[in-house]
């Protein structure tokens, strides 16, 4: 095991300074390492699969900016396109051809996206999609599943309440109970609860929100028939189907889970990969729904920096390369092989570790899984030991130059830039960590 004594003095000093000027020293919570403890590494630069921190430590990155960097950092083709875009100026606030090209690429490839609107984040995309759903149906309530994440919009920042089964309570201070009251929350992997919620609230539901594969509270793999069955039941109740593909879109397949499952959503949201690492989100769907959006229709939604030409160019370069290279099968094979090696090493060491994976996303489950088939499908099935054991594993790997997602409830990602030798080094580090 190649554990080195890392110097983290510079990161620690910057973290102290950052805490004085920003909440928790960061601009998005998980970056502060609260779930694993210790000093977050301040990354100075990234190239390929390597991160370099301000103290000069190098890490192999398996967080990949939480998903967008499917070709690794500073992919040459994308970098060239971005440099070209910079030379043309970086924000016009006008109609421009770059978003048109990206919109045509997506609508041409994905039949369920007849029209698309670009925004600046996944959260913004989901927020706008809900507004469209309410306008289209004339209904107010939305349904989400407990443990699914759709960004930090008030309406979906809710969890199952302690009282009435499907009534929601705010999952954050500052979310008005009156807003939470319009959201119905149902546990994952509980068909009876879903049916009951539809029976009770179906007539007032504008939309059922599906995180295409729940991947923000661990990787909660659903039963194969769940999504098609649940989408059909939602439609039967007169609700629209929103497929949130912010993490899975262009990641699990070019057409995301919609392509893999055959479920054609009414509304769909994208983010992460769609901007190639720049801040982009998008919502799209059926023509008659999207035509409700201003200036064509009465649903207001706008953005000063929306369809930023540099971000559009990065997204376009990324999606074109994905379409041309079709790396999905190879990525999945690499991920499967990595997961099998992890499990073998763990078995040899007598450790309770299983790896849940889908395409190039993976999540190490640490502890005894309570379900009959050993699959974690809802947050309540995650072993109680997860947080504590993951924190130890994370820090041991970090000390060996391996950077996984800094939380036991976040997934890690492979990119096309990860070589077999990188994965072998990760397995060796994992063995050392056990
Ligand atoms: C990341 C994510 C979001 C939020 O996107 P942001 O760009 O962070 O606002 C929404 N839904 C899903 C499924 C996500 O993975």
What's a quick, concise take on this entry?
The chain is an alpha/beta fold. Helix content is 36%, strand content 17%. The chain has two domains: 169 residues, Alpha-Beta Complex (Aspartate Aminotransferase, domain 1); 250 residues, 3-Layer(aba) Sandwich (Aspartate Aminotransferase, domain 2), CATH 3.40.640.
How would you describe the overall organization of this protein?
Helices cover 36% and strands 17% of the residues. By secondary structure, it is α/β, with parallel strands linked by helices. It has 2 domains: 9-70 and 327-433, Aspartate Aminotransferase, domain 1; 76-325, Aspartate Aminotransferase, domain 2 (3-Layer(aba) Sandwich). The strands form 4 sheets. Strands 4-12-11-10-9-5-8 form a 7-stranded mixed sheet, with helices on both faces. A 4-stranded mixed sheet has the order 1-2-3-15. A 3-stranded antiparallel sheet has the order 13-14-16. Pyridoxal-5'-phosphate (PLP) is lined by residues 121-123, 126, 149-151, 211, 216, 244, 246-247, 271, 281.
